[in-house]
Amino acid sequence: xxxxxxxxPTRSVKSSVGPSNVSSYLDPLYWDKRFSSEEHYEWxxxxxxxxxxxxxxxxxxxxxxxxxxxxxxSQLGEELHRDGITGLTCIDLSAVAVDNMxxxxxxKGIKDIQVLVADMLDLPFEKESFDVVIEKGTMDVxxxxxxxxxxxRPETVKKAMAMLQGVHRVLKPDGxxxxxxFGQPHFxxxxxxAPEFSWSIEWKTFGxxxxxFFYILKKGRRMTDSKPCMEKSDRPSISLYQExxxxxxxxxxTNVEEL
Length: 259
Description:
The protein has helices spanning 28-37, 51-57, 76-82, 95-107, 138-142, 154-170, 185-192, 242-245, 249-252, and strands at residues 66-69, 88-92, 114-117, 130-136, 171-181, 200-206, 212-218. By secondary structure, it is of the alpha/beta class.
């Protein structure tokens, strides 16, 4: 059954029903169709919930170059711009999303945010191009059909590593990668701490009930004696508020029913 809006071209805050199968999130045609009828949706809460964390790591200084991965129809780029952060480039795999974003920004008089069609698994930028790379929920798409989160499928790991390798490559020395995610540290650290990466890793949480994770990876700051974290930790317990259970975000989490 088609669960996307058909008569109304806007879905301003959140949609109450997602696709019937989470594997749809990996289908570019699904996103093209969705972005054709949905004006705005924020995964993992809106900017106001983590603005205080952004301001700790992304300063409104000039010149600054910031790359947002998987912008979709989020207002994150606009919010960063409103806070004085310049040099923004937003990318998405969907040409529909990019076209809509370009029109939306122009309608608001914002002409200095570049929006491009690009694949986060094969970034078309030169080495050391950006001071900051940020993504919100985009990396989580890779994991929607990963299987056991403790032992994800090899093809899932390959995609995640391609994304991280690209991010590491385009970051300038001392650049910062901000990843805002559902993925808990015991699932993300084995990837972030691969020996080929030189970044340090820390994280903070935000949100009520279910905590969302705000990862900060600083290139060139890794301790020389640090070792990849490959051990399994105890499975955490979580509580979910009714509002979150009704949100499409609940479908997007990584095997939350097994926690």
